[in-house]
Design a protein that fits this description.
Layout lengths: L1 H46 L1 H9 L3 E6 L6 E2 L5 E13 L6 H15 L3 H13 L9 E4 L4 H9 L7 E10 L7 H4 L2 E3 L2 H7 L9 E3 L2 H5 L1 H5 L3 E6 L9 H8 L13 E4 L3 H10 L5 E6 L6 E7 L4 H5 L4 H8 L22 H11 L8 E3 L2 E4 L2 E4 L7 E3 L1 H7 L2 H11 L1 H10 L21 H7 L6 H8 L9 H13 L2 E3 L4 E5 L5 E4 L4 E4 L4 H16 L18 E7 L19 E8 L6 E7 L5 H4 L1 H18 L7
Parallel strand pairs: 2-9
Antiparallel strand pairs: 1-8, 2-3, 3-4, 3-5, 6-7, 9-17, 10-11, 10-22, 12-15, 13-14, 16-19, 17-18, 20-21, 21-22
Helix pairs in contact: 11-23, 14-16, 14-17, 14-21, 15-21, 16-19
Length: 636
C-alpha cells in the first residue's frame, strides 16, 4: 500500500514538472512577442514617428494641373483689347463619391446648376464607366458658373460628395464687338484639335484660340501648364489652409504654370471704334493700313459678333443659329470674302496699258455713253458720255468706255500680269486671319475654268473690275498702299511686338516686303496724280467727299460694282440683295501717304455716297487727331 502510494506521488510530481516546463516556455514566448511588438511600436512611434506621420498625411495631397494665365492683347497705344476675368468651374471626381450617394448628389447638382440632359448624362457616364485610377480624375460638369450657382454649390458642399468648385480665368473682351473678327475668340478644345496637340500638353477641357489673333498666336498667348498641390479629405474636399500648410511642409515644390506672352498690335482702338460706329451699311468691310510698313491700323467686318459669348458657355442651339445665319456674322469679310472691285480696279488696267505702250499719257479716247462690241452694247455709267478724254481725266471721272477700249488695247494677259504684281489673285500672306486668293483671270484661266475658253468680250468686263475679277478688301488696300508708296507691296501684319508678362520685349516685328509692282516710276506717277485728281479736281467722283479745311490731300478712287446686270435705273427699284456694292479706296497725304483705307459697303449703291464718306472720315481722324495726340508718345 505504501509503495503503491509512493509510485503514484512520484508519477504526479513528474507530470507537474512537465506542465511547469511548458508554462515556462509559453511565458517566455509571450514575453518575447511583447518585447518584439514593443520594439516595433517604439520604432514606429518614437524613432520614425514623424516620418511615418508625414507619409500618411501625404496620401491626402492631390497634384492638379494648373492652367496658365493667357497672355493679354493691347493696341498700338497700350489700350487693353483682350483680358482675363475670374471664373469658377464645377467638377466631379467619381472616386470621392460613394455609390449610394451618387444619385442624391446628381439630383442636388442638377437643381443648383440647372444641368442640361447632356451634362447629366456626361456626369453619370463618368461615374458608371470610369475605372481604376481614372476615377480620381476630375470631370468638368459646368464651366463658368454664375455667382448664384456658385453660392448654391458652396453652401451645400457637404451634401455633394465628389463635387468641388475650382477658380480659373476666362477670356474677356472689354470692348465686346470691337475688332471681333481680327481678335477672334477662344473655345474648348475639340477631339480633332486634341489629337493634333496632345503632345504639346493640351488636355480635354482646355481653352484654345479658334479664330483671328487668338488662333494665329495661340503658341505665344497660351503659356505653359504647371502643377499645383492641393490637400483634400476623403470626400475630395479641400482641407483648411492651416492643415494644408502643415501637410505640404517639406514636400518638393510643384512646377507652377508660366503665363503666356502679351501681344502689342498695330491696331489703333480709337480708329477702330470710329470705323465701327460710323460704318454706313448692314454688311461689308473696312480696312486701314500703314502704306510704309504694311501694318494694319483698323480692320472691320460687318455684321459682327461678341466674342465674350463665344468664349463662354455656348449652347448648341445658339451656335447652330449663329453658323446658319445667312448674313454670316462669323465670316471675316476683309480676308475671307472676295468681291468684284468695280471702278477701283481701273488704275491697274491703265497701268498695264501704259507699261505695254498701248496708251500714252496724252492719248485721248472718245466716250459717247456706250461702246458696241460685236452684237453687245457696253454702256458707261454716264448716259451722255464723257467726250474725248485722257487717262488722267478718265480716272478722275471714272469713264467706263475709256477703260473698255484701254483694256482691249492692253489685252487681258497684260492686265492680269500687272494686277498680280500688285497682289491680286493670290493670298497676301497675312498670318493672323484666313484668306481667300480672289480671282485675277488671264486667258489660261478661262481655258481651265470655262466651257467656252477665253473670249475677247471677257476683257471688256474685266477691265473695269466686273466680269470675273474678284478681290478681297485687304488685297485692294495693300495694292493702293503700293501705288501711294511708289510700288512696294508689303505683307500685311498686325502684331508689332511680343512682350513677356513682366513687360520685357520678346520679339519685335519689322515690315516685310512681298515684292515690287511691275510698273515704271513715270507711269506710277501718272496714276498717282490721277487718283489725287479724283478727290481734288472739280468733276472728280470723290470731289464732293474730300475733307475740308485740312492740310493734306487725299488720293483715291470710287467704285460701284454690279451684283446683277441692271438697266438704266441702276438699282433704285431693285431688292436689297441685287443692289450695287459701294467701294472707295484711298491713301493720304497724297504726296507722302501715312494711311491707306478701303471701304466696301455691300449693296450700298454708289461708291461716292455709300463708302467714300467713311473712308474720308477715318483718314481725317487719323491724320488730324490720332497722329497729333501720339506725337509725344512712344506709339509706333
Amino acid at each position: 500500500m505504501f509503495w503503491g502510494g509512493l509510485v503514484v506521488f512520484h508519477s504526479r510530481q513528474q507530470e507537474l514538472s512537465r506542465y511547469k516546463g511548458r508554462y515556462v516556455i509559453m511565458l517566455f514566448m509571450i514575453t518575447l512577442v511583447f518585447i518584439v511588438f514593443a520594439g516595433r511600436l517604439y520604432c514606429l512611434q518614437v524613432s520614425h514617428g514623424e516620418e511615418y506621420r508625414s507619409l500618411s498625411l501625404r496620401n491626402f495631397v492631390s497634384a492638379r494641373r494648373e492652367v496658365p494665365l493667357r497672355g493679354m492683347i493691347f493696341d498700338r497705344a497700350g489700350s487693353l483689347l483682350v483680358d482675363n476675368r475670374p471664373s469658377f468651374n464645377a467638377y466631379f471626381t467619381p472616386a470621392f463619391c460613394k455609390q449610394d450617394a451618387f444619385e442624391p448628389t446628381l439630383t442636388r447638382l442638377t437643381e443648383y446648376l440647372g444641368l442640361s440632359d447632356i451634362e447629366k448624362e456626361q456626369t453619370e457616364e463618368a461615374y458608371r464607366n470610369t475605372k481604376r485610377l481614372d476615377r480620381f480624375l476630375p470631370v468638368l460638369v459646368r464651366r463658368d458658373i454664375s455667382w448664384s450657382e456658385l453660392a448654391a454649390v458652396e453652401q451645400h458642399l457637404d451634401l455633394l460628395e465628389g463635387v468641388e468648385v475650382r477658380p480659373e480665368t476666362r477670356r474677356a473682351y472689354p470692348h465686346e464687338t470691337l475688332a471681333a473678327h481680327m481678335l477672334g475668340y477662344v473655345g474648348e478644345i475639340n477631339s480633332r484639335e486634341l489629337k493634333r496637340l496632345k503632345a504639346k500638353k493640351y488636355r480635354q477641357g482646355d481653352m484654345i484660340g479658334k479664330k483671328g489673333v487668338e488662333l494665329a498666336w495661340e503658341k505665344k498667348l497660351r503659356g505653359t501648364p504647371g502643377v499645383i498641390q492641393v490637400v483634400v479629405d476623403s470626400r475630395g474636399q479641400r482641407v483648411p489652409d492651416s492643415v494644408a500648410q502643415e501637410v505640404l511642409k517639406g514636400l518638393p515644390q510643384a512646377e507652377r504654370a508660366v503665363p503666356g506672352d502679351n501681344l502689342i498690335l498695330s491696331l489703333d482702338a480709337r480708329l477702330q471704334a470710329l470705323a465701327e460706329k460710323r460704318f454706313p451699311g448692314i454688311e461689308g468691310a473696312a480696312v486701314a493700313v500703314d502704306p510704309k510698313t504694311g501694318f494694319i491700323l483698323a480692320i472691320l467686318s460687318r455684321p459682327s459678333f461678341d466674342p465674350n459669348l463665344l468664349s463662354g458657355r455656348l449652347s448648341p442651339r445658339w451656335w447652330n443659329e449663329l453658323i446658319l445665319d445667312p448674313d454670316r456674322p462669323l465670316t471675316n469679310r476683309v480676308t475671307q470674302q472676295h468681291y468684284p472691285p468695280g471702278s477701283t480696279f481701273k488704275p491697274f488696267t491703265g497701268l498695264a496699258a501704259l507699261e505695254k505702250g498701248a496708251l500714252t499719257e496724252t492719248d485721248k479716247l472718245t466716250c459717247t455713253g456706250a461702246m458696241r462690241y460685236g452684237s453687245a452694247l457696253f454702256r458707261c455709267w454716264r448716259r451722255g458720255g464723257h467726250g474725248r478724254l485722257s487717262i488722267h481725266r478718265a480716272i478722275v471721272q471714272s469713264c467706263d468706255v475709256f477703260f473698255y477700249r484701254t483694256g482691249l488695247k492692253a489685252g487681258l494677259d497684260a492686265i492680269a500680269e500687272m494686277s498680280r504684281s500688285f497682289g491680286f489673285g493670290s493670298i497676301s500672306g497675312f498670318d493672323s486671319a484666313r484668306e481667300v486668293p480672289g480671282i485675277m483671270p488671264n486667258k489660261l484661266w478661262y481655258q481651265k475654268h470655262t466651257k467656252t475658253g477665253f473670249l475677247p468680250g471677257f476683257t471688256i468686263s474685266d477691265s473695269i473690275g466686273q466680269g470675273d475679277v474678284n478681290v478681297t478688301p485687304l488685297q485692294l488696300a495693300m495694292a493702293y498702299a503700293a501705288i501711294g508708296n511708289g510700288g512696294t507691296l508689303y505683307k500685311p501684319q498686325i502684331v508689332l511686338r511680343v512682350e513677356s508678362p513682366t513687360g520685357e520685349v520678346v520679339k519685335t516685328f519689322e515690315p516685310i516686303v512681298r515684292g515690287k509692282a511691275k510698273v515704271s516710276p513715270e507711269y506710277l506717277k501718272i496714276m498717282q496724280d490721277a487718283l489725287e485728281g479724283v478727290c481734288n479736281e472739280p468733276g472728280g467722283t470723290g470731289y464732293y467727299r474730300r475733307p475740308r479745311g485740312v492740310s493734306f490731300k487725299v488720293a483715291g478712287k470710287t467704285g460701284t460694282a454690279q451684283v446683277v446686270k441692271q438697266g438704266d435705273d441702276r438699282g433704285r427699284n431693285l431688292p436689297y440683295d441685287f443692289r450695287d456694292h459701294a467701294w472707295f479706296a484711298a491713301y493720304a497725304p497724297a504726296d507722302d501717304p501715312r494711311i491707306a483705307v478701303v471701304v466696301v459697303n455691300e449693296h450700298g449703291g454708289h461708291g461716292s455716297s455709300g463708302a467714300a464718306p467713311l473712308a474720308m472720315e477715318l483718314i481725317t481722324y487719323f491724320l488730324e487727331q490720332i497722329e497729333v495726340a501720339d506725337l509725344n508718345t512712344e506709339v509706333r
